[in-house]
Design a protein that fits this description.
By secondary structure, the protein is mostly helical. It has one domain. It is built from 5 helices and no strands. The longest helix is centred in the middle third of the chain and has 15 residues.
């Protein structure tokens, strides 16, 4: 099996998006986002959706995303 075929099979498992191309892009974008190579705004822009919609999809897929450190999150929880 070729890498391209394998990537397509993996991408096809993303149920919240329509086209295979959009699913492949989403997987790439999530990797770039969690590696802090792009911002949330840029990720949403590439996916051609609002930041709120992109965050909603991440939430539905149970993908935790935050640029805050663990300590920052604890501080924010107490406000």
């Amino acid at each position: 099996m070729t890498k391209q075929k394998l990537f397509q099979e993996i991408a096809s498992e993303v149920k919240l998006l329509d086209s295979l191309e959009q699913k492949e892009t989403f997987i790439f974008i999530v990797g770039a986002l969690t590696s802090r190579l792009i911002s949330l705004k840029k990720a949403a822009e590439i996916m051609e959706m609002t930041s709120d919609k992109f965050l909603e999809i991440l939430d539905l897929m149970e993908i935790d995303f935050s640029y805050l450190s663990s300590e920052d999150i604890e501080i924010e929880k107490h406000w």
